[in-house]
Amino acid sequence: MMLIPCPWCGPRNQVEFTYGGDATVKRPADDAPESAWFDYVYLRDNPRGPHDELWLHSAGCRSWFKLRRDTRTHDIIASARIDQDLPGPVR
Amino acid sequence: MRYSIFSLARGALSRHQNWPLAWRSPAPKKRYDAVIIGGGGHGLATAYYLAKEHGITNVAVLEKGWLGGGNTGRNTTIVRSNYHLEPNAHFYEFSLKLWERLSQELNFNVMYSARGVLNLVHSPADMDTAMRRGNAMRLNGIDAKFLSRDEIAAWIPNLDCAPDARFPIAGGLLQPRGGTVRHDAVAWGYARAADSLGVDIIQQCEVTGIRIDGGAVTGVETSQGFIATPKLGIAVAGHSSHVAAMAGIRLPIESHVLQAMVSEPVKPILDTVVTSGAVHFYISQSDKGELVMGGDLDFYNSYAQRGNLPIIEHVVAACLALFPSFGRLRLMRTWGGIMDMTVDGSPIIAKLPVDGLYMTGGWCYGGFKATPASGYLHAHTIAHDAPHPLNAAFTLERFAEGRMIDENGAGPYAWAH
């Protein structure tokens, strides 16, 4: 069972949350080439280890936030508000 | 040595003390004509068909752990070809036809049991969708049969078919030739058959790098040293992104954990495979008597080979809603396997954008039933440096070209399929 630290509400049971995928992908500019849009929509690093991801506290404050979680162990390393960076180097 | 009633009798005379090993454990050679990464069902099948169908026998299969220790030994053993879209329907039907005679092909009993796969429907809309899929299957030459609620109630007495059930059953789409196969036997059968054709199976040999020179594969770095090869096949579903990254390739794949579980063993109580898309649940009874169950992904990226409790609770709740009498059983074991989830829910069996590099992966939930066809078509693609018509649609380029094979129409979220 994962205890997920919502930056607004504190640690809560994982069943209150909805997964939103990789937080490192950035929406390209409207006039970016098609290949940039392809990368953004489809390609993922899919790391084996720390993964920066988006979660929604859907049964709580209904805020999106960032979570860094190890995909090998499910250990949670850090969380941050959506408008803030996760601590440490961005992968 | 060929297995038969006579070899069994000879074995009995020596109290079964003198059976030869089913495959060798050779040290890796310096160079092979083809190397396959991954000693699960798909990798071993690829090596077998390379040797059998294409005469390429100087082949090594590299496995970082032990044979069939990944998803080959972690699935729920179900085989079926009840797909709607043409590329999937033809591909999985080809696979089911290979399953039907695989024991004879490999001289190894893989225990294919055509006990049927029944998809329950719970509402008129559900029924329309199932009828449409059933009709599409029949047009593609695949067996499909619609059963009424009464027919299902008479066949499966433990299933709660009452009108006031939590998920009332309106009918079901049955594929009679679907069923189950003993999964470990698939790895062992392919390993033994490939080995007898000269393939080297090398366990405890982890690939740590892919060497590329001038845009073409020249070999692999492994925990047992460098192995040269002009043709490299990747069959490591669950970890495809990790291995493809060694060649500088990013894939439209996320790795997610899918759980399964078994009850304590009981006497025969369920003689088919029952699934419900509405509650995302499937169940069958193994030959050992355990009820084998599974459901949804855990819905977050994972390489952990174990999941969390909410999904187990969901699966068990779905089981008890459909089969109330199973509430007396105890859950014996749960485990997880890592799925390559593609963004359209369909696999990739294709040449990659490096010369001499190929992959079979992106299996989502469908990897086990695909094993023979995946190996057959991966081998064809490697031998001819071009796809077979049956895997021509399963390219890596289809995502950029907008040729998705999206069975669910679910859009580009890996975990939505």
Name its key features.
heterodimer; A: 91 residues; mainly beta; four-stranded antiparallel beta sheet; two-stranded antiparallel sheet; 1 helix; B: 417 residues; alpha/beta; eight-stranded mixed beta sheet; six-stranded mixed beta sheet; 11 helices; 29% helix; globular
For the sheet with most strands of chain B, the description reads: 8 strands, mixed
Label the structural class of chain A.
Answer: mainly beta
> For the residues shown, what is the average pLDDT of chain A?
95
Largest sheet data of chain A: 4 strands, antiparallel
Q: What helical percentage do the residues of chain B reach?
A: 25-40%
Please state roughly what percent of the residues of chain B sit in beta strands, choosing from under 5%, 5-15%, 15-25%, 25-35%, 35-45% or over 45%: 15-25%
SSE layout and pairing:
The complex is a heterodimer of chains A (91) and B (417).
Chain A: E1 3-6, E2 10-13, E3 18-22, H1 34-42, E4 50-56, E5 64-70, E6 76-81
Antiparallel strand pairs in A: 1-2, 3-4, 4-5, 5-6
Chain B: H1 5-13, E1 34-37, H2 41-54, E2 59-62, E3 78-79, H3 86-100, H4 102-106, E4 117-121, H5 124-139, E5 145-148, H6 149-155, E6 171-175, E7 179-180, H7 183-196, E8 200-202, E9 207-213, E10 216-222, E11 225-228, E12 232-234, H8 240-245, E13 253-263, E14 273-276, E15 281-285, E16 291-301, H9 309-322, E17 331-342, E18 348-351, E19 357-361, H10 367-384, H11 398-401
Parallel strand pairs in B: 1-2, 1-12, 2-8, 4-14, 12-19
Antiparallel strand pairs in B: 3-7, 4-6, 5-6, 9-10, 10-11, 13-16, 13-17, 14-15, 15-16, 18-19
